[in-house]
Design a protein that fits this description.
It is a single chain. This protein has about 400 residues and is α+β, with helices and mostly antiparallel strands. About 35% of the residues lie in helices and about 20% in strands. The chain contains 14 helices and 13 strands. Helix 5 runs antiparallel to helix 6.
């Protein structure tokens, strides 16, 4: 089946998109059946019949179907996406053109479901690529990640030919605030560096670099991941080791901090200070089994070993309270003896729902003294390097 096929030929009747606020009763019933479909095929027969009825309703069902993405499960969203595609294709086959103004208004409404907005944008772009491209500058700070990515890509293309170095620096610096995807951030920072501007990516991403790390606990036979060791049940961090990441990506190497051994569990704690109650994302990366806790409450669980590590691999949306809040990370190493299975560590950062760093203060205790620092500010060079330089007479 072709996706989102529309035409703009002169002559065919233009379909006025029906109001999503007052869809026909038959459309309402069909959408309810599709949204009720369960996992593993539950309700598929009913959903199949509802899908056919929905598609048969034609343009009257288009905006209501896009609106129905809100609150839909992933399985139901697949049914809805397929229905939108079929409605669009039937419109083309019937020599009709969908109401681009209504679709554009839907895309522009950031309160609509993000996935549905992207689907609607693809409908607009299929019908009129130039019109869709004109919308892109509006998406530079959009909460929908694909729309934002396309907007950033378009800006990068626009900026690249600029000859004036000051203009390049200004435009790329501004664009960096909009970029969220790692490949785009790297390309923008590369361009800035070539024009004399160095970017601290640790600060840009909001990585926590200051931690205290627990002694190791047992994970023989994998028992440690599920076992609630003391750090999960008590706030006492006496005797924990101070650790500061010197990696630009905030990675804490537990092989160096604790020991290069297998079948171990470690915890790392950081205390951040919020000026008011609020919500943010804790985003972590690790090649090991991970649990995340905030203020003693488990907020994320993923037991998977050595499948790779990448930015924002693990994400939990959490609530912070005004004042001090503890971010606790549990990292489990298994017994795989292979060289590629040696990594044992983690990185964690704080961001809003789009991935933009949240600037918070952090309380640390170093040398017996308490201090407050900016999260992401401190990413020192490898502490071994100065010693090595001295030995080499540098």
């Amino acid at each position: 089946m072709r996706r989102f096929l529309l035409t703009l030929a002169v002559g065919p009747a233009i379909l006025a998109a029906a109001s999503a606020a007052d869809p026909p009763p038959a459309v309402v019933q069909s959408l309810a059946a599709l949204k009720a479909v369960g996992a593993e095929g539950a309700g598929n027969d009913t959903a199949s019949a509802a899908w056919k009825a929905l598609v048969k309703s034609g343009n009257a069902a288009l905006l209501p179907t896009l609106t129905a993405f809100d609150g839909a499960t992933p399985t139901a969203a697949n049914w809805l996406r397929s229905a939108v595609s079929a409605i669009a294709e039937n419109a083309e086959n019937g020599g009709q053109v969908l109401d681009q103004a209504a679709l554009t208004a839907f895309v522009a409404d950031t309160k609509k479901n993000p996935t549905a907005r992207r689907v609607a944008y693809e409908l607009v772009a299929k019908a009129d690529k130039a019109a869709a491209e004109k919308l892109l500058p509006n998406f530079l700070n959009d909460p929908q990640p694909d729309l934002r990515r396309d907007a950033v890509a378009a800006e990068m293309k626009r900026i690249a030919p600029l000859a004036n170095r000051d203009n390049l620096k200004r435009e790329y610096t501004k664009l960096l605030d909009s970029a969220r995807d790692e490949d785009q951030v790297k390309e923008i920072t590369k361009q800035l560096k070539e024009n004399g501007v160095e970017i601290n990516l640790t600060k840009h991403y909001g990585y926590i670099t200051e931690w205290v790390v627990s002694p190791a606990f047992d994970n023989k036979d994998g028992v440690g991941f599920a076992k609630p060791y003391g750090p999960e049940t008590t706030a006492d961090r006496t005797g924990w080791k101070y650790a500061q990441s010197n990696d630009p990506g905030g990675m804490v190497d537990l092989n160096k901090t604790i020991a290069e051994k297998k079948n171990l569990v470690a915890y790392a704690s950081a205390t951040v200070v919020a000026e008011a109650d609020g919500t943010l994302d804790v985003r972590a990366a690790s090649q090991n089994g991970v649990k995340l806790f905030v203020n003693g409450r488990e907020v994320y669980v993923r037991e998977e070993y050595h499948s790779g590590s990448f930015i924002d691999q693990h994400t939990a949306t959490v609530k912070l309270v005004k004042g001090k809040n503890e971010i606790l990370v549990k990292v489990c190493q298994n017994d795989n003896p292979a060289e590629w299975a040696k990594p044992w560590g983690f990185a964690a950062r704080l961001s809003d729902s789009t991935g933009q760093a949240i600037r918070l203060k952090q309380v640390i205790v170093k040398g017996g003294k308490e201090a407050t620092v900016e999260v992401g500010e401190l990413a020192p060079p490898d502490p071994k390097k100065p010693d090595a330089d001295k030995k080499e007479g540098k």
